[in-house]
């Protein structure tokens, strides 16, 4: 038996606080996350169906205790029920969904599901800090998928490098009431979506010496061998292959580092259709090269391979969901380091498509490795190409951390991305691709410059640069620099690298798989 630490809790016997130390429990406890909402500031709490079932079991004690004072976010109760000795009640904001997608004054996401994610995430966060809890059952709160996503995302912690770390509690869907098969399946889909994002978070959060290009390749190969050996194929292209393909733009970034570059291919084929290509920037550490960055905050550049992490997570998520698509994911991997062999500002390099590039800023390296990879993507005759990268600080300035900046040459592809973001709660905002921005990339020496002649519109000119290297008519570029790390607005995403927008990409792929 374990005597739990002194804490103030609510007794099941009366509407008063009693010392927690008076309650003795076994070490392995099942925690329960329930939800409710207030329809107005003056109204009593409205419990979810699952919470009502629990309240009935304990003679309405939960609603009685919850009515003592208004709950603003979460409240945890101890000793209410023998099977569930630790219960957290979380408040779901009373919101309505937008009638129209993407009006300027609307949220452009499913607000009801996002409110469920916030409530469930807060509840799981409250319980995971309790060392006595080794299992958490979660109220679906009206959306098994949203609840599953939030619970799994909130539970994640990057502690693999710590000498002492706590094993995460096991997550289960609440068993207090019979759930329809659809709700159970939705929960399982939500767990898969979140695990895919957690894979991206893990790759991004890992220190650069634990996630070199070689170690990134090894991590994906290991994950595929463990979980997807029958459905996913991994192909690793080395420096000799990259050189043979005349990917001079890619190699110009990699040449300053002692770590060898790779082009990683992940193939998932579950449909006899032209492939969808995902491309992710994989700079596993970015110093800026000779155009070196300031030292403050440079440690965060371990996550400059966020695009690579997210496309890898989305691809394996699509495989776990058995989506009926043909998917080819391409990830150029390297480091951007200063050295005697590094590319110098003003150097001219030749890309795979034959275009010459004047490299006036070696810290604008992501577009250089993506350029050759996009050209290579065209060789698969894809139906759609989506690339993503932590490409520009300008995007973080423009949109902050609430949404991803999206550029697209195809309205149909944009529609799938937008709706994917609406479903996942992780949104996109479409940016312009006006011709005039491309005119700012002219070079007197080469076909194109890797930076703009103007200090403004940096994310747009970066997208216009990439457009020179893709022929596929249905292309989208996602600048994810602003969402690289977590924001306070998503309570189910603890502080750290976010893995965004992995779930949105999975949702977009699901929608694209329905195309006729």
What topology emerges from the helices and strands here?
Blueprint: E1 2-3, E2 8-10, E3 17-19, E4 24-25, E5 29-37, E6 46-47, H1 49-57, H2 61-66, E7 74-78, E8 86-91, H3 111-128, E9 133-138, H4 144-155, E10 170-173, H5 181-205, H6 213-227, E11 232-237, H7 239-244, H8 248-254, E12 262-269, E13 276-280, E14 282-286, H9 306-320, E15 326-336, E16 347-350, E17 356-359, H10 366-378, E18 384-389, H11 393-399, E19 403-408, H12 411-424, E20 427-430, H13 435-438, E21 448-449, H14 458-467, E22 475-479, H15 502-512
Helix pairs in contact: 3-4, 4-5, 5-9, 8-10, 9-15, 10-14, 12-15
Describe the structure.
The chain is built from 15 helices and 22 strands. It has helices at 49-57, 61-66, 111-128, 144-155, 181-205, 213-227, 239-244, 248-254, 306-320, 366-378, 393-399, 411-424, 435-438, 458-467, 502-512; strands at 2-3, 8-10, 17-19, 24-25, 29-37, 46-47, 74-78, 86-91, 133-138, 170-173, 232-237, 262-269, 276-280, 282-286, 326-336, 347-350, 356-359, 384-389, 403-408, 427-430, 448-449, 475-479. The strands form five sheets. Strands 11, 12, 13, 14, 15, 18, 19, 20 and 22 form a nine-stranded mixed β-sheet that branches. Helix 4 packs parallel to helix 5, helix 9 packs across helix 15 and helix 12 packs across helix 15 (502-512). The longest helix has 25 residues, at 181-205. The protein is elongated. The model is unreliable at 1-27 (pLDDT under 50).
């Amino acid at each position: 038996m374990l005597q739990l630490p002194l804490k103030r809790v609510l007794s099941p016997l009366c509407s008063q606080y009693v010392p927690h130390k008076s309650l003795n429990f076994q070490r392995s406890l099942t925690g329960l996350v329930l939800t409710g909402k207030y329809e107005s500031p003056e109204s009593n709490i409205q419990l979810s169906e699952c919470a009502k079932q629990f309240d009935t079991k304990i003679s309405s004690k939960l609603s009685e205790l919850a009515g003592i004072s208004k709950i603003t976010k979460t409240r945890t109760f101890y000793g209410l029920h023998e099977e569930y000795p630790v219960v957290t009640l979380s408040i779901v904001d009373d919101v309505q969904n937008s009638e129209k997608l993407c009006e300027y004054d609307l949220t452009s996401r499913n607000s009801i599901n996002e409110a469920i994610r916030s409530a469930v995430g807060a509840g799981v966060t409250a319980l995971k800090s309790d060392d006595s809890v080794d299992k958490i059952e979660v109220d679906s709160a009206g959306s098994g998928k949203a609840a599953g996503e939030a619970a799994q995302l909130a539970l994640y912690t990057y502690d693999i490098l710590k000498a002492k770390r706590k094993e995460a509690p096991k997550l289960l869907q609440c068993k207090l009431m019979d759930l329809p098969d659809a709700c159970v399946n939705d929960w399982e889909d939500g767990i898969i979506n979140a695990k895919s994002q957690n894979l991206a978070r893990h790759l991004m959060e890992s220190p650069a010496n634990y996630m070199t290009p070689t170690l990134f390749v090894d991590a994906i190969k290991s994950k595929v061998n463990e979980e997807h050996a029958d459905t996913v194929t991994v192909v690793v292209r080395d420096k000799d292959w990259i050189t043979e393909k005349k990917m001079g733009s890619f190699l110009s970034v990699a040449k300053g580092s002692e770590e060898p570059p790779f082009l990683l291919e992940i193939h998932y084929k579950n449909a006899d259709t032209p492939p969808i290509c995902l491309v992710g920037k994989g700079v596993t550490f970015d110093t800026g090269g000779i155009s070196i960055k300031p030292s403050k905050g440079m440690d965060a550049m371990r996550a400059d391979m966020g695009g690579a992490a997210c496309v890898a997570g989305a691809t394996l998520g699509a495989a776990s969901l058995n989506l009926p698509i043909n998917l080819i994911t391409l990830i150029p991997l390297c480091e951007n380091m200063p050295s005697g062999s590094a590319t110098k500002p003003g150097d001219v390099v030749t890309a795979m498509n034959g275009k010459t590039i004047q490299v006036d800023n070696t810290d604008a390296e992501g577009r250089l490795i993506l350029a050759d990879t996009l050209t290579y993507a065209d060789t698969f005759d894809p139906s759609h190409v989506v690339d993503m990268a932590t490409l520009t600080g300008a995007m973080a300035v423009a949109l902050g951390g609430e949404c991803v900046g999206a550029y697209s040459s195809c309205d149909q592809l944009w529609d799938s991305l937008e709706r994917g973001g609406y479903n996942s709660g992780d949104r996109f905002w479409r940016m312009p691709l006006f011709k005039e921005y491309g005119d700012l990339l002219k070079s007197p020496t080469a076909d194109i410059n890797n930076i703009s002649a103007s200090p403004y519109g940096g994310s747009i000119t970066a997208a216009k640069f990439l457009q020179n290297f893709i022929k596929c008519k249905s292309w989208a570029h996602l600048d994810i620099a602003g969402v690289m790390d977590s924001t306070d607005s998503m309570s189910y995403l603890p502080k750290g690298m976010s893995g965004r927008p992995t779930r949105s990409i999975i949702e977009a792929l699901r929608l694209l798989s329905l195309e006729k």
